[in-house]
Amino acid sequence: MSDYQTMVQAIEEQAIRFDHYDDLDAIVEAIGEAKYVLLGEASHGTSEFYTVRAELSKKLIEKKDFSFVAVEGDWPSSFTVNRYVKGYDRMSPLDALKDFDRWPTWMWANEEILSFIQWIQKYNQSSKKKAGFYGIDVYSLWESMEEVIHQLEKKGSKDIETAKKAFSCFEAHDRRPENYGIHAAFYGEDCVDEVMRLLIKIRQNRLTYQDEHETALNLEINGLVTVNAERYYRAMVQGRPDDWNIRDHHMVSALEQIVSYYGDDAKAIVWEHNTHIGDARATDMVDEGLVNVGQILRERAGHKNVFSLGFGTHRGTVIAARKWGEAIEKMPVPSAEKGSWEDLMHQTGAFNKILLFNQKNRALFSQPIGHRAIGVVYHPEYEYLGNYVPSKMSDRYDAFIYIDETKALNPLITERALS
User: Fold this and answer.
1) pLDDT tens digits for range 165-176
2) pLDDT of residue 326
3) Among 76, 121, 363, 419, which residue's CB has the most CB atoms within a 10 Å radius?
4) 267, 67 in Cβ contact below 8 A?
5) What residue segments make up the domains of the chain, in order of their start?
6) Residue 110's beta-bridge partner residues?
7) Three-class SS of residue 180?
8) Under 8 Å CB-to-CB from 36, ≥6 apart: which residues?
9) Where are the strands (E) in 24-87, listed by range?
10) Is the pLDDT of residue 418 over 80?
11) pTM of structure
12) Residue 355 in 3-state DSSP?
């Protein structure tokens, strides 16, 4: 029997049919006492990946006392959502999403997220422990520095001059990361000392910033962003794997800082693309010298404390763009390539299913197989040329949710009209 036939038979025998959200309880049970639950997605523009993650997150918050949701988004814009769900500022849920105004806006400014943050806000109104919402990505260099200055001015802090000096170092680059990266990487005109000095000052004086609105945490993560974004943009122009690794190490560092803020019993739910949450060592990423959040967390916290859940679909529609920064489109997602993981899942029945990986079945799903990944830039007619990642599925994830046919995400705010 071939490896594919073995996997098809194993899927038929072990997959759980997923017809109702109550079926997610099997995953809740499998998560056990894990401290980090990583919820993936096979694209940034599929409605069901968001809605299913939301329903599972609700169960984890209600039944297992998870502390917060951390997403693959910018800290400043996500912290506006955090202020909304925790009642720090009075605003509408639409206003809470207004700061997601930088391309790709649809990733977090969408109807699915709108519904989810409304649920968190309502839950927090009757809960002693309020669930948070944070962004742990690295891109928001200028926005994070502006927020640091804003918060220090509000506090009347003596650290404001250090912050302004750091910010002024970047001003000549007109908020264009590539301009800064070129000057820093090739001409030695970097701002390393300035951003490091700022982060050190914030950490030294963190006790003076503590208040009921999480100002200390807000300042420290924004300071961390400035340090790692500077490194990221400097590495980006050099074309090595460093920029990817800097980004994923940053996301783990931000996540650990939030967990530390919440205390020893804190537990985190993370929403990111499969390429970030599925262990890189189980893919061809390892051959390129790439690491990711899933790998780093397993190494630091131990596998038993990290539960990674992958997602995939056989066909449907998706929101994406043809080029970075261009108008978004509702695109077709073609039927999965023959012999791919998604094709095998479809062969075992054209219905949604959950597959749990464990010690008993892990060897059955450890052979490399193509696993589809769709980014914010997508060309469905050419996806067979590079959208399938060779993956040892049971090593990459602890469980997998398969949605046979999916539909496109519903954007709320976009810089350009939907094509």
Assistant:
1) 999 998 888 888
2) 94
3) 76
4) yes
5) 3-132+267-406, 141-241
6) 411
7) helix
8) 255, 267, 268, 270, 297, 301, 305, 306, 307
9) 36-39, 68-71
10) no
11) 0.96
12) strand
